[in-house]
Structures are given as C-alpha cells and as structure tokens.
C-alpha cells in the first residue's frame, strides 16, 4: 500500500487497523501542510529517498532509521509504534532526513557529528531558528552522552577547543 504526497509516494508496511491509517493520514497531511516539512519532502525527492511508515511492533525502540541498500537506494523508515503522535512522527522524519541527505551527498553517517547535525535540524524545525552557539554546545553534549558508543567523526572547527 502507498499514499501519494504530492509526486512521491509514501510506502507503508504492516498497516492493520483503522487507527494506523488515521495516524498515517495525520502525519502525511502535516508533511504536506508544514512549510519546513514541505522543504524536507522536496529534498528527499531530489535525492530519491524512499520514505516508509512501518506499523509493525518490532521497531528496535527507535522512532526511525536511515539505510542505504546495496543498489544505492536510500530509505527512511518511521516506526509508527514508537512515534505515535504527529509531533513524534514528523520530528522523526526531520531527524532521519538529515542522515539521508548526508549519505546522498557522500558524507559519513553514524557518527556523533552526524547525530549532532540531525539534532540541530530538529531544533530548527521545533523552534523555527538556528540554535545559538551555547545551544549548539548543549546539543553536542547531549549527543556525546547519548551516542558515546559512536565515533566522533569530523568535528566542526568551532567545537575543537571544547574537547
């Protein structure tokens, strides 16, 4: 099953109830109506990223993931069982879109810096402005704590004095 959001279909897996369909419709409408999300959707289309909503119960305790298949296809999967509200679902799209665009541009993902960029994009979406320097440092500290098992990656020059 797929739903049309402008010119790019959203793939759907394991939808089983009317509630699932209703939650999908709410998120889809938010993606169409919100100016920031509309820009995100256009970027995903530009890079041919497939957005999939998965309603199964095995979601690995994540709101979403970004993967690249062997044939080069980039996929964002939103695990709706963990991102039940529109806010959680759309925030997951914003976060995962950062990873998807980075991989499409040939950047390394799966590092603390990659996660920092995704959280910075979430901040822009939530607050409608870029984070201040102090807020960027706080975001990076949060990422270091939450993703201590990941390598740092290529650090922006403005953080090098803080590590």
Task: Explain what you see.
This protein has 163 residues and is of the alpha/beta class. It has 2 domains: 1-106, Zincin-like (2-Layer Sandwich); 110-163, no CATH class. Helices cover 47% and strands 17% of the residues. It is built from 5 helices and 5 strands, in the order ββααβββααα. It has a 5-stranded mixed sheet with strand order 1-2-3-5-4. Helix 1 crosses helix 2. The model is unreliable at 1-6 (pLDDT under 50).
Write the layout of secondary structure elements.
Blueprint: E1 2-5, E2 8-13, H1 18-33, H2 35-46, E3 49-54, E4 64-68, E5 74-79, H3 86-104, H4 112-127, H5 133-146
Parallel strand pairs: 2-3, 3-5
Antiparallel strand pairs: 1-2, 4-5
Helix pairs in contact: 1-2, 1-3, 2-3, 3-4, 4-5
Please tally the β strands and state the result. 5
Number of domains: 2
Work out the helicity level. Answer: 40-55%
CATH class type of the largest domain: Alpha Beta
DSSP strand content: 15-25%
Give unreliable regions as ranges. Answer: 1-6
Major β-sheet annotation: 5 strands, mixed
Side by side, the strands of the main sheet go 1-2-3-5-4
User: Which structural class should the secondary elements be placed in?
Assistant: alpha/beta
SSE topology string:
EEHHEEEHHH
Number of helices: 5
> What is the terminal-to-terminal distance?
48 Å
CATH topology descriptor of the largest domain: Zincin-like
Using only CA atoms, what is the Rg? 16 Å
Question: What key phrases describe this protein's structure?
Answer:
163 residues, alpha/beta, Zincin-like, 2 domains, five-stranded mixed β-sheet, 47% helix, 17% strand, globular, disordered N terminus
């Amino acid at each position: 099953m797929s739903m049309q959001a402008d010119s790019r279909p959203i793939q759907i897996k394991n939808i089983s109830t009317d509630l699932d369909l209703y939650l999908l419709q709410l998120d889809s409408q938010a993606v169409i109506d919100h100016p920031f999300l509309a820009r995100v959707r256009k970027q995903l289309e530009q890079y041919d990223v497939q957005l999939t909503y998965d309603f199964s119960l095995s979601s690995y305790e994540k709101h979403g993931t970004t993967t690249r298949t062997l044939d080069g296809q980039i996929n964002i999967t939103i695990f709706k069982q963990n991102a039940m509200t529109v806010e959680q679902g759309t925030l997951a799209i914003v976060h995962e879109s950062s990873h998807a665009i980075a991989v499409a541009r040939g950047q390394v993902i799966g590092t603390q810096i990659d996660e920092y960029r995704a959280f910075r994009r979430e901040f822009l979406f939530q607050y409608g402005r870029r984070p201040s320097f102090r807020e960027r440092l706080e975001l990076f500290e949060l990422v270091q704590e939450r993703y201590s098992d990941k390598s740092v990656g290529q650090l922006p020059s403005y953080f090098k004095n803080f590590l």
